[in-house]
Amino acid sequence: MLTVAEMRRRRRELAAVDGRVKDALDVLLVNTRKAAAEAATALTTAETAADETLALAAKVHGSAKAAANLTGLPLSEVERAVKVVPAKRVKALQEELQTKAEAKVAAGSSRRRTPKPSADSGDAPPAASGDTTGEDGSKVGGASVPGQVSTGPVAAADQSAASVS
Predict the structure, then answer these.
(1) Predicted local confidence at residue 107, as pLDDT
(2) 133 pairs with which residues across the strands?
(3) I want to staple 78 with a disulfide (CB 3.0 to 4.6 A). Which of 30, 64, 72, 161 is the partner?
(4) Pick from 69, 66, 64: which is nearest to 79 by CA?
(5) Burial of residue 94, with CB atoms counted within 10 A of its CB: 0-12 exposed, 13-18 middle, 19 or more buried
(6) What average pLDDT does the structure give for the chain?
(7) Where are the beta strands (DSSP E) in the chain?
(8) Is 130 a member of any domain?
(9) How many structural domains comprise the chain?
(10) What does the pLDDT average to over 157-161?
(11) Percent of the chain scored above 90 by pLDDT?
């Protein structure tokens, strides 16, 4: 049997646990609402950027239909984006993109990091197998060194022709 003092002690413990649960719930609620507000802001920002990009694509490609085909989005969505974004903003985005592209070109950045040797330079490495084809498709080189074995269909035809004569 429980004494009155024991019942009061248990009630105080339950109240303390209940208070901690409520405090934790309050913190969770505040953090969740803050995260939801940040997510809503991020969503709005992303939707605005997407609309601006679609409108810019429509302007650059000449029509909303071309932009819709390019992106795979419905034409109605591209047309809505074009209507939502002001022409001044699209022009500013286009100029910004143009400036960035010109800056890259001026900086000398390119996709290819090492220049390819030109075809007319004399320091081009020789072909690995020795079999080369001329501009007209005829065989230019081959196994001209005694003891060198050529492989491939042209070499096999040459070797069979050499064994016949």
Answers:
(1) 84
(2) 139
(3) 64
(4) 64
(5) middle
(6) 79
(7) none
(8) no
(9) 1
(10) 48
(11) 56
Q: Has residue 28 been placed in a domain? A: yes
Domain that holds residue 20: 12-107
Q: Is position 163 within any domain?
A: no
Residue pair 56/94 in contact by the 8 Å Cβ criterion? yes
Task: Give CA–CA dist 28/150, Å, rounded.
Answer: 76
The answer to whether 97 touches 55, Cβ cutoff 8 Å, is no
Residue 56 inside a domain? The answer is: yes
Cβ proximity of 91 and 99 under 8 Å: no
* Helices then strands, each counted (H, E), the chain: 5, 0
Structure tokens at 131: 């079999």
Q: What is the pLDDT of residues 105-146, one digit of tens each?
A: 888 755 555 656 665 555 555 555 555 555 555 555 544 445
Q: Which of 97, 20, 16 is nearest to 53 (CA)?
A: 97
Q: What is the pLDDT of residue 143?
A: 47
Assign 3 to helix, strand or coil. coil
Q: Which two tokens stand for residue 132?
A: 């080369």
Give pTM, 2 decimals. 0.50
